[in-house]
Amino acid sequence: MPLVSLVVIIAGRIAMGFAQGLLFTGGSTWPIGMFGADKTGKALSWIGIAMFGGICAGAAVAALLGEVVSVA
Known about the structure:
Distance between the termini: 22 Å
Number of domains: 1
Structural class: mainly alpha
Order of helices and strands: HH
Strand content: under 5%
Number of helices: 2
Number of strands: 0
């Protein structure tokens, strides 16, 4: 059973890494294509703000959800 769990965790991490690579590449090139190369810095800074804001909001929502719907 521990071996199956380890394989599932590794497969999930590989899939998540692949998906993040696609997301970050697409998320970085799309605004540059929309707004032009002269605004690359501004576009990438807003992408970073949005991504880290999403991570922060996700943690807060998960904590709130953990209080409302307990699985323990």
